Amino acid sequence: MHESGDSPAEFGILIVEDDFRIADIHRAFIEQSEGFRVVGMARNGAEARALMSRQAHTAHLVLLDAYLPDVEGLELLWSLRRDYLQVDIVMITAAREVETIAEALRGGVFDYLIKPVEASRMAQMLARFRRERAALNARSEMSQEELDRALTRLRPEGAPGGGVRSLPKGIDRLTLRTVVSALEHAGSPLAAMEVARTMGASRSTARRYLEFLVSVQVVGAELGYGDVGRPERRYRLVGDTTPWCEEG
Description:
CATH topology of the largest domain: Rossmann fold
Mean pLDDT: 84
Strand order of the largest sheet: 2-1-3-4-5
Shape: globular
């Protein structure tokens, strides 16, 4: 099944995890991630299949553990792959065995995250997912260059393509440098509102630039607590800013 037209306002995520504490951590993070919402939580394979049968049109991504009480995660992976072609799957598991990883990759997983998952790594995965879905939904055909840009997750670290990078529509290099400068001079991770004050822009604008930097692995995001005691995403520099901030 192929989705067409504009990307949805929010991408639905189904969490399949038998440890309720880990599931709640994932849910809290997703609820703080712009453009995503949790459409269901399953503790085993039977619950996952039942939820998918009801949420097939609202679930875009499944976070799947490899160890479930009633079924092997890889068996459920192949079952979901067969029945729900429109859904992407990310394995989030403690399984480090090469055999398990290799089968998951053959099963076409979007990503494979090893527990305990760092918030910045989860944020990178979500940003890539949003970017790729937007690119694929935006048109009926793509050139090789457009496809290569969309599938940046397939480009190994250190691969050719260094130097000054082109920026996507809606991201200005001068403003990007302002955002990077705010993070560089901060003594601790900043929330989007704190960056917005430095930029003299709205929180949504700051968030857009910050999430772009997360997607290209220059900035990491983690959950922190603001003045009102509620968790919020906070950002810090983790990578080289030069390719994105220098003029071409």
